[in-house]
Amino acid sequence: MTDPAWQQPIRPPSQPHRQRALARQVLLTKPPGSLGQLESVAVTLAALQHSDSPDVDPIRIAVFAADHGVCDEGISAFPQAVTGQMIANFAAGGAAISVLARQLQAGLEVINLGTVTPAPLSDGVIDAAIAPGTANLARQPAMTSPQLQAALATGDRAAARAAEAGSRLFIGGEMGIGNTTSASAMACALLEQPPTALTGPGTGLDADGVAHKIAVIEQALQRHGQDREPLAVLGSLGGFEIAALAGAFIGCAVRGIPVLVDGFIVSVAALAAVRLRPELHDWLLFAHHSLEPGHMAVLTALDARPLLALHMRLGEGSGAAVAAPLLRSACALHNQMATFADAGVSGASE
Ligand SMILES: Cc1cc2ncn([C@H]3O[C@H](COP(=O)(O)O)[C@@H](O)[C@H]3O)c2cc1C
Ligand SMILES: O=C(O)c1cccnc1
């Protein structure tokens, strides 16, 4: 039997390209370091892409959608039917990520891994339904082992399509009412922190709603026990879209495509994927710091320095889409700025 996609080798970033990119940054007509994170991002992309002219275009955005059985516990401010309705909205072009993808001229695909309210079949939506949502993770494992493998493989296929399209940057988004409960539970298990530290309002719960959500997550963690193994955590506390994101990120690294990580839920998927494949860490750039309170702990665990903090808390990949132009700027500056020698500008005094 061949190994699953998420076990394929991940090539390391190119040290020669990193060294040449670092050397070039010093020659450009600016005080060394003055472009801050735009410099380090360009150097990272050069090393990842094994290129002296890093470039993030074309950009691929894949939004993974699925429902969550834990919605039975009343943990979201919105009804479960919104997941399927939003899939239709993504395809119709009216969702935030639809607008941002158009603005970026990025390829957008929506992958439906299973909703309770069936989304109408439409162009741009890939049907990869595993089940009509996960089981209620407060009371039983969210998914079976074959379901988990199917979700990981669905993510890997999205990475394969991105590679076939020549994509040089991958953004993963998610849609799934209830998925901040799943992501918070996963973060608690992976980071060994209590739900009080990592649980927030999601789409807009009030204080009583958050207290109830914490109790539901406590129940889920009690049921789950002490197992910190990432596949066990994903299968027991995850969602189909979260597992697919983990599979997609590993699949991108396997195929040499850097990933721009979105908000809280996507970062939890990234954390699980990095625990599974530590070499993935090199391939992740972090877009923004979400308002969801658990995000900071997840970013810290990933040693991430997100580009933006815009008080966003939407998901869908929207924070990453908003940050993508910064990567374009970083590459353009790296590739196109004149050197001191070329421009006849004097360098720093001794
Ligand atoms: C209209 C609408 C569009 C969204 N787009 C992303 N989310 C975000 O909110 C959900 C998670 O929050 P919770 O765990 O509180 O349900 C996810 O679907 C996430 O992507 C949305 C939520 C709504 C209501
Ligand atoms: O940060 C996120 O990804 C997020 C936060 C709240 C709701 N949905 C997504």
UniProtKB/TrEMBL annotation:
One of its GO terms (molecular function) is nicotinate-nucleotide-dimethylbenzimidazole phosphoribosyltransferase activity. It catalyses: 5,6-dimethylbenzimidazole + nicotinate beta-D-ribonucleotide = alpha-ribazole 5'-phosphate + nicotinate + H(+). Gene3D superfamilies: 1.10.1610.10, 3.40.50.10210. GO terms for biological process: cobalamin biosynthetic process. It is an enzyme of class 2 (transferase). Its EC number is 2.4.2.21. Pathway: Nucleoside biosynthesis; alpha-ribazole biosynthesis; alpha-ribazole from 5,6-dimethylbenzimidazole: step 1/2. It comes from the Bacteria. Pfam families: DBI_PRT. Catalyzes the synthesis of alpha-ribazole-5'-phosphate from nicotinate mononucleotide (NAMN) and 5,6-dimethylbenzimidazole (DMB). Belongs to the CobT family. This is Nicotinate-nucleotide--dimethylbenzimidazole phosphoribosyltransferase. The lineage of its organism: Bacteria, Pseudomonadati, Pseudomonadota, Gammaproteobacteria, Oceanospirillales.
